[in-house]
Amino acid sequence: MEGSMKCIKYLLFTFNLFFVLTGLILIVTGGVIQSIYSQYLDFLGNSIFNAPILLVVMGCFIFFVTFFGCCGAIKENYCMIMTFSVLLALIFMIELGCGIAAYAMKSEVRSTIETQMEKGLMNYGRKGYTGVTETWNVVQHELKCCGAQEYRDWENTTFSQDKSVPDSCCLSDVEGCGNGILGMPDQAPKIIYTKGCLNKLEEVVSVNIATVGGVGIGIAMAQFVGIVFACLLAKTIKKEYEMV
Fold first, then answer.
1. Beta bridge pairs of residue 150
2. What is the mean pLDDT of the chain?
3. Nearest-angstrom CA–CA distance, 182 and 34
4. Which residues of 71-98 are buried (b: 16+ CB within 10 A; e: fewer)?
5. FRET pair for 238, CA 20 to 30 Å: which of 36, 102, 191, 221?
6. What are phi and psi for residue 203, nearest 5 degrees?
C-alpha cells in the first residue's frame, strides 16, 4: 500500500510540473493570438476576440491550482488533494467546452467579419471612427488586399467621392497613390491590390480559432489523467487514515 501511494504521489507531483507548463502554454498562446486579433479589433465580434483572453485567464488559474496539487502530494493531505481534484475537474470541463465552442465558432467567422467590414467601409475616414479607419489600413496593408470582396467595394462609400481608394490598398507606400483609381480600371492592378480582404482575414482568424480549440482540448485531455492520479492518491490516503 505504502509503495503504491509513493508511486502515485510522485506521479501526481510530476503531473503538477506538467500542469505548470500547460498553464504557461495557455498564457503564451492566448497572448500571441490576442496580439494578432488586436490589429483587427473592429472587424471581430466579442465572442471571437474573447477566446484568447479566456486562454490567458485559464493559464493563470492553473498556476494557482497546482499549488494545491503540489502541497497535497508532498504532505499527503487528503483535503488539499481533493480540492486540487475538484478545481482541476472544473478547469477540464471549461477547457473542453472552450475547445468545442472554438471549433463551432468557425462557422460564424465569415458572416461576423463580413458584417463588420461592410459597416467599416461606410465609416472609413469619418470623424469619430478612427479605430475603424486604422483597422482597415492595417488589414489592407498587412494582408495585401483592398475592400471586402474586391477593391470596387469602395465605390459606394463616402470616402470615394473622387473615385479614390485608401492609400493602404497600394502596392507601394506612396502618399496619394489611391487617388482616382476607381476611374482607371486598366491601371488599377498595376497600382493597388485588387483582391478583397474578406477571404484572407477569414483564413487568419479561422487558423487561430483552430489553434485555440486544439490547445484547449489537447491540454484538457492531459489534465484528465492528472485528475485520475489525484483521485487515486486521495483514495489511498483516506484508506490509510481509516486503518489508523
1. 195
2. 78
3. 35
4. ebbeebbbebbbbbbebbbebbebbbeb
5. 221
6. -65, -45
